[in-house]
Structure formats: C-alpha cells, structure tokens
Amino acid sequence: MLTSRSTAGAFALFSLLLCVTAARSNSPADGEAVSCGTYRRIHSNILREDRVLLIRLPVNYGTGDKRYPVLYKLDGYKDVFLETVGTIEYLVDKVDRFPDYIVVAIENTDRNRDLFPERGAGDYDRFLKEELTPFVDTNYRTSGFRVLCGQSLSSVFALYSFLREPGAFNGYVLSRFGLSSERASLFEKELKNLTALRKTSYLYVANGTRDSYDEDGTRTKHCLRFLDLLQKASPPSVLIKYRLYDGEGHVPYPTLYDALKWMQTLENAKRP
Fold first, then answer.
1. What is the 8-class DSSP label of residue 98?
2. pLDDT in tens, 183-199
3. Can you give the pLDDT at residue 19?
4. Backbone conformation region of residue 255, classed left if phi is above 0, alpha if psi is from -120 to 50, else beta
C-alpha cells in the first residue's frame, strides 16, 4: 500500500507526465518548456496589495466555447497546484461524466493574517467573493459552479467563508479540519445564517488518524461535535460527508480526489 508521501509523489509525477504527454501530442521542438499553468497577478483594493495566482485551464479550453467549473485552491503554491492539477486530470480521465476544471491557486502573502477568523479573515473572504471570483468569471469561460478547497488552517477559513455566506460556492473541501474549543464556539454563533440557504452545497471534511498536529485527538473531537451541530442546523440542501483516513497524517492526500468524485456523483444523479 502506498504511504501518504508516496501517494503524493505518484500524483505529482502523474500531473507532470500529463503535461509531457500533451506537449508530445503537439510535436514540440527540442528543448521546449513544459507548462501546466499560467501566473496571473490581481490587485486587491480590499487587501491593499497584489495577489499572485496560478491558473490552469482545461485541456480543450482553446478549441471551443464550452464553460467550465472552477476550483479555488487556498495555500496555492506550486507543489499544491501540481497535485491539484494531477488530481483533476486523473478524474477527467477515469470518472464517468466528470467535468474538466479551471484551477485557480492563490498564493499566500500573510497566511495567519488572512486565514484566522479572529484577525483578517473577513477581508480575505471579501477579496475572494467581491474581487477574485468576478475577475475569474470576467476573464475565463466559467459555468458558475465553484469549489473552495482548503487544508489545515485554510480549511478552517473555508468553513468560516461558508458560514458567513452559505451558497457563495457550490462545494467546500476541508482537508485536515480541526477546531479549538474557542473557535468552535465562535462558529456556532454563525449557524443561524444557514436557514435561508436553498441551493445545494457540498461539504467534504477529512482528517487522518496519524496527525502529528492533533496527537490527543482534541481538535478532531471539536470538529466532529461542530459538524453534528452543523448538520442539525442545516437545511436538506446542505450535504455533508466526513471521512477519517486510516494511516494518513496531516492533510490526507486522497481528500481532493474523493471529495470531487463524491460531489460529481451527486451532481450526475440530478441529471438524466
């Protein structure tokens, strides 16, 4: 069985091989660079700074006028971006009726400032919803289906974003989601915002049994307690799935693959 580290390496290698395969199909010149995405820069008036994005377009994006769902990846550095692209490519190839995604990875500038609800998370959330998503929708052919994906601290931010404005994204992926007792109490006050939600929202939450950041399991227990409260407070349109990965450590690597496959299976069930 592959370990989490070897699995991560396998997916990253797969993503690179996909890039190479695509390049070979176009008969590249000797020494031509391999590319899986493009850097973009956006200025945020809310954050008062420039933010760097890594954007990957679907394989057939340039051959038609089709519109695509968008996955917004928090903590979006190059290694995370490559893992995400590899996962998307694999799902498109292996899963029936799985749509190709535009991937938007967002690099951090001051992670603690932006992701802590007690600090600047409110402004960062506004940046995502009032500046970044309109920028992407204006510059790319998007379908309107959005997924927000976080890991570790950014998974806490992703749930914070959901509670502040349920329905802004269609799906939320929370890889390694844990809560302190103080933050759980803070989030419980936001559950009232769910009552008016009518559109379907997917929440996939994952933890690992060998998380060195939660050796006594306290944060996971707070997570499970809060998810129970969230489920009871949510209308039927909020679909929640929790998975504990045996043998996985901090930020279980299979999370994104399983989350997107789960969401798409439910989406496919809506259609004939």
1. P
2. 888 888 888 777 767 78
3. 54
4. alpha
Instruction: Tell me the residue length of the chain.
Output: 272
- Cβ(150)–Cβ(108) below 8 Å: no
Element holding 248 (H helix, E strand): none
DSSP 130: I
How far is Cα 179 from Cα 218, in angstroms, rounded to an integer? 8
CA neighbor of 169 nearest in space, from 135, 124, 203: 203
Q: Which domains does the chain have, with CATH numbers?
A: 37-270 (3.40.50.1820)
Query: At how many degrees (to 10) do helices 4-25 and 78-94 cross?
Result: 70
Kindly report, residue by residue over 58-111, the tens digit of the pLDDT.
989 999 999 999 999 999 999 999 999 999 999 999 998 999 999 999 999 999
Q: What are phi and psi of 248, to 5 degrees?
A: -90, 150
> In degrees, to the nearest 5, what angle opens at C-alpha 203 toward C-alphas 247 and 2?
25
Closest CA to 88 of 169, 11, 189: 11
- Look up the pTM and report it: 0.88
Show the beta-strand stretches assigned E in 74-156: 102-106, 142-151
pLDDT at position 21: 47
Q: HEC string of 3-41?
A: CHHHHHHHHHHHHHHHHHHHHHHCCCCCCCCCCCCEEEE
224-245 CB burial, b ≥16 within 10 A, e <16:
bebbeebeeebeeebbeebbeb
Quickly state the pLDDT bin for 249 (edges 50, 70, 90).
very high
